Amino acid sequence: RRLVYVVDRRVIVDQATDEAQKILCRLKELKDSEDEDLRKIFSVLQKSSFLVESQNDVTSSERENANVIALSTLRGEYADNREWCLDPSRPAIIVGTIDMIGSRLLFSAYGGVGESYKALQAGLLGQDTLVVIDEAHLSPAFMQTLRAIHPFVNRKDKNTIKPFNIMSLSATLEKEDGDKPSETFVLEKDAPEDLTNEVAALRLNAEKKIEWKSFQVGEDVLKSKKAQQQLREIQAKEMASVAAQYKDLPVSVLVFGKTVDLVKKIKDELIASQDIDKNQVLLMVGGMRGYERDQLVGNPVFQMFAPKPNRPQQDKSYFLVATSCAEVGVNLDADFAVCDLTSADSFIQRLGRVNRFGESSSVVTIVFNDDLSLQTEQAIETLKTLRQSENGNSLNASPLALRQIKFDESLCYPPKPVCPPLDSARIDDWSMTSLKQNEFPRSLVSYWLRGVTKNTVPETSLCWRAYLSLESTDRRKIVTVKTVRVKSRECARESTHRAEATIKAIAEKFPEHRAVVITSDGDYKVRSLGELNDNPDLYAELMFATVVLPCEAGGLENGIAVEVLPKDTAPVTDVVDADEWIRVVLTETEEATTAKIINGESKTYDGRKIEEAIRHITQSENKRCVKQIVISSAAESEEEKDAEKPKKQVLAYFINRKSPDRFLPSEGEMDDETASLAFGQIEREQIELEKHNADVSNFARRLAAKLFLSAEFSEALEIAGSWHDKGKARECWQKAVGNFAFPEKILAKSNQTWFNHKLNDYYRHEFGSLIEAEESEELNEHPNRDLILHLIATHHGYARPHFPARAFDKDNPTRLNQETAERAMRRFADLQTKYGWWQLAYLEAVLKAADALASRAEARGEI
């Protein structure tokens, strides 16, 4: 059902997404094809999906425009829209990097994913899935991990629920341990006709001449404590000088540097020392915020590096200064290039960005210091190998000529990382997703994704939000971040070392500002920037974390995080998608209510209360109010009353009616009952408990049929659905959602957008459901009782393996609560042994999907 396409460069994610989108557009055309077989393909794909096929006449326009295949990526238009999570039966294409896909597969999803989603996404990625690794030779550790996962899922001793397969794509496939060598494609043997093909021959023989430019530095520089910094500055000047020789020609020059610091310095030198207009120079680094990176395609400088037939008329020189993010997959076609020394694999990729189509004659100049003592062994050996093949002071490096140069893999390529063995104990640790890292420390999955090497560089995402300083309490800060989940387009991804420097620079100027840190295991913490600055273990806390900062603190320029703040700090632009979300600060006084749209206009509603203003915005903007957070309330004493003073201030969130987020559980589901309330509640009738349980049971049965699950699993899912929310029939929970007519009326869904935690006291309704189900005589006799009970317990992410004491059912004795919680832990361990890690998570995902789909249909008035 799912194609997971993994690439080790985020820039290729965009191109892979474009290719997938072309396929989806063609698939839509098949429904009207004159060819019966093609129409059948469309019909089969459409009927495969519970969601697409079940849309009724009320949403016929949506059905007409819906893709029969869900498309989700890490960034851009389809940035992790989670369509693939909502309906497990829907065919899907998921494109992502090793970190994002691999961490999800190993129950440890990077990126602030809630605990419930960790198991759900692991289950879906580990079942009914083909994982394709592009450029597999660049990811040996992850390939080793995938090969280890394969037999754990497709077990010979057990019946497999759904298959899990892997495929590696690479120009140099390696021999797998214990297997026969994979067949490799060789151009001369397998496609000799391409050598004489008119188009291919032009590209294969594209003229690319390599030249060398060396420089010297004094011994005082090399022996200095700041040798690397000084050498970097000299290197930048030399490379800028070589690149500037083309400044009077109408050409495009690509300048490659290994580090962010180096390319930043090169850009500064081109502008300051070489007197090149700043509008002719563009900086491109892998850590750019997604929003600014997406703007690159329309940047006038970037357009000058498109293939010549697609390039605008060029009358001057343009310079693109980039790190390795531009080496692989980006459709660049420079006329000339300037590079520093690097290893063979990186060098070959760089050559691929120059004169790609063989339509001109190009020169690639390698600039290096004569003293190679500070270079890596691989860069040195690559230089030696190239110079042994040179003719005079240059070298022909057309693709065919380059194929004849034999780079020693043991000397010219980076060492392969050591990947720890994957064992059952490690998977057991990661699968216990209801335990936070500080409660149960476990190994970081990064070692199984990237291996253990000296060059492993942890990353940290930095995000800026406009409203973060509005909330009066830390809890409210967390709720606001969870309500609008952090997306890739908002984040600048930096090495943790650089991110730490950025945060410290901001903290020096704004120590009182507070940030939300989403740790690598998905825990949300609020810290003042001063506290972060004083934390001696800050680096460890930031590894693979996301830090949400207030926009007014600054720290971002042209999408790139800075390590030194200017005197006049410019606020960072909040780039939450305005087409999807509107966030409004509503201030009510005795006279009127003022609505200030964040990053938008202000409007005053005379004589209207906040509730009336919200209804007006909902109608005028055609959006749905999903959350209201009280920022402040006026004092009750008469002497403080004033017609112009705020009586109340609220931060309200409105979501696009067609956003995929509107029916998905919120990231706050572990601690916030609004998971079942937040989306789509304000404009529909209340849903009674019995009806909702019956709806989820029905959807679970129908979804299981779409997935061709066995009668055993189908029945277990159906029964679990009928029991899953019975624990909501508690006075505390009903009052928390605003139902004070209990027990005459028992609700599963309220039309309130709030949840009163004080009344509920953190009781978890699924724990109450579990207690009731355990006492059922009917279920006691069922052969799959344990699986049914586990599915009930886990439908919001708990019971993997535990429920904390605060979740206990206060209507029952403490001893019963404790024993029920203990049995839930043992049951989880037993079932995971019986079915397997990913198989059990998959069954949980199906029930969660049935719950979400039923809630969606109820909210839309379809059932």
SSE topology:
Layout: E1 2-6, H1 10-30, H2 36-48, H3 50-54, H4 60-65, E2 70-72, H5 83-86, E3 92-96, H6 98-105, H7 115-125, E4 129-133, H8 140-153, E5 164-168, H9 187-190, H10 198-204, E6 207-215, H11 219-222, H12 227-244, E7 252-256, H13 260-272, E8 281-284, H14 290-295, H15 300-303, E9 318-322, E10 336-339, H16 344-351, E11 361-369, H17 377-388, E12 394-396, H18 399-403, H19 409-412, H20 424-431, H21 446-450, E13 459-465, H22 474-483, E14 491-495, H23 496-509, E15 514-518, E16 524-528, H24 529-534, H25 538-542, E17 546-550, E18 556-557, E19 560-561, E20 581-588, E21 592-597, E22 602-606, H26 610-621, E23 623-633, E24 648-656, E25 687-688, H27 689-706, H28 711-723, H29 731-736, E26 747-749, H30 757-760, H31 765-774, H32 777-780, H33 785-793, H34 814-835, H35 837-859
Parallel strand pairs: 1-3, 1-4, 2-3, 4-5, 6-11, 7-9, 7-10, 8-9, 10-11, 13-17
Antiparallel strand pairs: 6-12, 13-14, 15-16, 15-17, 18-19, 20-21, 20-24, 21-22, 23-24, 25-26
* Strand line-up across the major sheet: 8-9-7-10-11-6-12
Per the principal axes of the C-alpha atoms, what is the gross shape?
globular
**Portion of residues within helices:** 25-40%
Main sheet makeup: 7 strands, mixed
Strand runs, count: 26
Radius of gyration: 29 Å
Low-pLDDT regions: 56-62, 635-640, 663-684
Ends apart, CA distance between termini: 27 Å
Mean pLDDT: 86
Strand residue percentage: 15-25%
Summarize the structure.
With 863 residues, this protein is an alpha/beta fold.
Question: What features would you describe in this structure?
Answer:
The chain starts with a strand and ends with a helix. The protein is α/β, with parallel strands linked by helices. It is built from 35 helices and 26 strands. Helix 34 crosses helix 35 (837-859).
